[in-house]
Amino acid sequence: MRLEKCWFCSSTVYPGHGIQFVRNDAKVFRFCRSKCHKNFKMKRNPRKVKWTKAYRRLHGKDMTQDSTFEFERKRNRPERYDRNLAENTLKAIKKIDKVREDRAAGHHTLRMKGKKAKKQREEAKELEQGITLVKAPSVLQEEPSLTLPKIKVKVSHQESQENRAMEE
Amino acid sequence: MGGKCPHRKVKKRRLSHKTARRTKFLVKGDDAVYEALKKPEEERRPLPVDEDLPGMGQYYCLHCDRYFPNVATRDEHFKTKRHKKRMKQMMGPAPHTQLDAELAAGMGMPDNGPKLMPM
Question: Per the record, where are the segments of Basic residues compositional bias (chain A) (predicted)?
């Protein structure tokens, strides 16, 4: 069973799924779903469409060079069946898949690293501007937790007495 | 698609859809044109005489995959914006292929196995 890749979005095409177009120069184009087929018919370039793997690779969104990419290949000369080899391969697949996932997650965190301060600033601004959506302005004035606390200032009694004396 | 049509008097519909009307199977794909352009000059065969094509198929634009009735119209075509745009596109990086799609999906280069005939 050969699992092909979609020409447009590079997702896996399982047998019985998608559609295949053979051009009159015998070039084969496989598509995973009608979305990809339609985009091909519209002559869109997968490198310029943001949701495709080709775009994400080209713009540094995904990992590009990794040793785990060397395992899955199109083999034009099939391997002779060997029970032990098949068993070991099935075991290895799980491990390699985990390694790849971890590395991809590491790549993602590294990519998102410098954006925390920017995100915080943007969110603080949004909160400041949109606080009226959460609380009505009148409530905001009344509720003490949302406004600055009132400070009590002590006024000395002696001064007032002196003032009265002056008035008399 | 559709270029300017100089004779049209109706203001709303001034574009001609002559090229769009060509059957989709007659138009060469971008990658086919790119490969044809990559070939060196010597390898290109002289254009075969075809009486069904405009100008017996002798005046051809390789970039745009179009035939013209005579040299003058072809040279005029070379000056158009559309042709220049197409030329720029063909000078750029190679068009997307199935191999690119597979590499983007996290696959390695295709494995052809050991050589059967030792050289």
Answer: 106-119
